[in-house]
Write a structure and sequence with these properties.
Blueprint (H helix, E strand, L loop, with lengths): L4 E9 L4 E4 L5 E9 L2 E4 L4 E4 L3 E8 H10 L5 E14 L5 E14 L9 E2 L18 E2 L16
Parallel strand pairs: 6-8
Antiparallel strand pairs: 1-3, 1-7, 2-3, 3-6, 4-5, 7-8, 9-10
């Protein structure tokens, strides 16, 4: 059984991340990453697609809100966290199993896209509650050539 395995995986989001809040107001975002491993067949000298692996993922707190605002269905991401193998028996006594990851870090892959990083500021205890007085998010300047943004900030 794979309980507590630290893993980094690259794959595509199967749907838009779903943000919700616990009864205590804690943000949690759930999403699924489809990992499509390729294997080299030494006999045919060709790459072959292996069976797709689906990993259910959860992120918490500020990271959850950032994920919900930043990613959408089909985006290629890198996730790192603790992978667990979970089994359960349904009402019909059928055993089901799935992989789930408590994600510590998530990033956009730049293998097939370009992204723009936009830092956000966090509210400190001394900052006013008034929305008009909050500082705006800061966009990091680009270096070199102008780049097309794959950012989801324009939602």
């Amino acid at each position: 059984m794979l309980n507590g395995l630290e893993l980094t995986a690259a794959g595509n989001l199967t749907a838009a991340p779903e943000l919700r809040f616990t009864s205590n107001g804690l943000a949690v975002c759930n999403f699924t990453v489809a990992v499509n491993p390729r294997q080299f067949n030494s006999q045919t000298k060709e790459w072959a697609e292996a069976e797709t692996i689906f990993i259910r993922c959860a992120v918490w707190r500020d990271l959850a809100e950032n994920v919900a605002e930043s990613f959408s269905r089909g985006d290629r991401v890198l996730v790192a966290g603790e992978l667990k193998f979970t089994e359960y028996v349904d009402d019909d006594d059928i055993t089901h199993a799935y992989l789930e990851m408590n994600v510590r870090e998530i990033a956009a892959s730049v293998k097939f896209a370009q992204v723009t990083i936009r830092k956000i500021t966090r509210k400190s205890a001394e900052e006013p509650e008034d929305e008009d007085e909050k500082p705006a998010a800061v966009k990091r300047p680009t270096r070199g050539k102008s780049r097309t943004s794959a950012s989801r900030s324009a939602k």
